[in-house]
Write a structure and sequence with these properties.
Length: about 500
């Protein structure tokens, strides 16, 4: 399982704050390690139990300790921060992060930067997020956790080599700190270096052999390589250690889907939903994976039913961020079905859910930017290419302000779709190649453009790549896998 979170300047460090930190219980000397500011030894002890579990990707187990820590010390900023990251719902994330942010002036520079980076990430302000994390590393170059955070940021930006560089520094500082090895393995995998990925995951297993995640991560590498049965065995190993390790149910379901055993996949996922899941977040994860399994078979009606179930879970606690995401996914399913009017209706409802919420203006602005992408896709499908181009240009200008790399890639996707509509297939390929190449649907679109342009060899190559992309629990893969497989065999 990937350890990847959406992380988001500082005023002069006052004499009062220096005194406060000198009185707190810290992990190391100021300038070497990021402080843990709390006035309670008991709260710190609970926090450290939670952080250890969290860094071993056992977020649900960890969350109770973070909650207990800030109950013992209501000004314990990092306890709120980690509660946000480990909680089961998007609602909990924003509530706890807001509590941490309200106290950010009472803690060390390092703690404040962590909170600011998390806030920026949640708002899609990736330039600010990067700046905050780089300042964190500049202040604490010997802190393995600071390096790990910056490395994970670059993973999210698909800058895998830079991610590797920072994570390797973390392992040099603290060779027994297991967390960096996880994302190191994924970075090598995404660069196509499967040998180093396997070596790294096996080192990860040796460091914490009694934890489930190293086996889960190694299983995902095997999944990516198309070694589905071997992958299932590693997922089963993870579950033998921790029967509640949700990620392994999701990974195993992906293996069964790719083996053409979607019914077995859903049996595993229904067990997760009904018997294993401990909170709404885990139940929502199971429902989404069932959605993916139905979509992989082309059964969009049942996929919609599962998404409605997921939406209703979020609705019970009035979680606008999660409900908005669900409406957007429902819109994507209608889009795939060719029902563009219904898709547009859901996209608009998704945006309004955020705009009418109590979430921050920065979060609302990010939602507005993303809505431009949905508007543009609908316009292309309705042959209104000029509107699509206009929306793409607007999104490009807005995304450039925050240096949101993901949203800039969406512009290239829109431009590629517009070029396809205009039968300019060479330009389409060029645009799609600058879009998100970790999205198998983009690979499928590249293949389609090559095929339309008469380059059968390149088309077949990309159709095969799309069909065998072997993404984990990925709806975009489900939308195109069987179509790509069929096209590859027909060329």
């Amino acid at each position: 399982m990937k350890n990847l979170f959406s992380f988001r300047s500082l005023s002069f460090y006052s004499l009062f704050l220096l005194v406060l930190v000198s009185m707190s219980y810290s992990m190391g000397k100021i300038g070497e390690k990021i402080s843990i500011t709390t006035a309670s030894k008991e709260a710190k002890a609970e926090f450290l139990k939670g952080r250890d579990l969290f860094e071993r990707l056992r977020a649900t187990d960890a969350n109770q300790y973070f909650k207990k820590a800030h109950q013992l010390d209501e000004k314990f900023v990092l306890a709120y921060y980690y509660d946000a990251l480990s909680g089961a719902t998007a609602k909990n994330f924003f509530e706890q992060l807001d509590k941490a942010a309200a106290l950010e002036n009472d803690v060390s520079q390092g703690e404040k930067l962590m909170i600011m980076a998390a806030k920026a990430g949640a708002s899609g302000e990736t330039k600010l997020q990067e700046e905050d994390l780089k300042r964190l590393v500049d202040l604490y170059p010997k802190d393995e956790r600071a390096l790990n955070l910056l490395g994970q940021f670059y993973f999210g930006q698909q800058n895998f080599q830079t991610c590797i560089d920072y994570l390797k520094k973390a392992t040099v500082i603290s060779p027994d700190f297991s967390s960096p090895y996880n994302m190191l393995g994924y970075s090598y995998r995404n660069l196509g270096d499967f040998a180093n990925a396997e070596k790294t995951f096996k080192t990860y297993i040796k460091l914490i052999p009694d934890d489930p995640n190293p086996y889960d991560s190694y299983a995902e590498l095997l999944l990516k390589e198309g070694k589905y049965n071997e992958s299932i065995k590693q997922y089963e190993k993870a579950l033998s250690i921790d029967p509640h390790f949700v990620a392994s149910y999701l990974g195993m379901a992906s293996d069964y889907n790719y083996l053409g055993k979607n019914k077995i996949a859903r049996e595993k996922l229904n067990k997760l939903f009904n018997d294993v899941a401990r909170n709404d977040g885990e139940r929502r994860g199971a429902a989404f994976a069932i959605t993916v399994s139905y979509a992989d078979e082309g059964d969009m009606e049942n996929a919609l039913k599962e998404m409605q179930k997921q939406y209703e879970i979020a609705g019970k606690i009035n979680d606008p961020s999660a409900m908005s995401a669900d409406l957007n996914i429902i819109g994507n399913i209608y889009f795939e079905m060719g029902n563009y009017d219904k898709a547009k209706e859901k996209y608009e409802a998704s945006l309004n859910m955020i705009l009418n919420s109590n979430l921050s203006q920065n979060v609302k602005d990010n939602a507005k930017r993303f809505s431009l992408y949905n508007d543009a896709r609908i316009a292309v499908m309705k042959n209104d290419v000029e509107t699509a181009k206009k929306k793409s240009k607007e999104l490009w200008e807005e995304a450039n302000k925050t240096q949101n790399n993901f949203q800039l890639k969406l512009c290239h996707e829109i431009n590629g779709l517009a070029a396809m509509n205009e039968k300019n297939y060479k330009k389409a390929v060029s645009e799609f190649e600058r879009a998100n190449l970790q999205n198998p649907y983009i690979i499928y679109r590249i293949a389609t453009a090559y095929n339309k342009n008469g380059n059968k060899e390149a088309a077949q190559k990309h159709f095969k790549k799309a069909a065998n992309f072997n993404a984990l629990n990925n709806l975009n893969q489900a939308f195109i896998r069987l179509k790509a497989k069929e096209m590859a065999s027909e060329i």
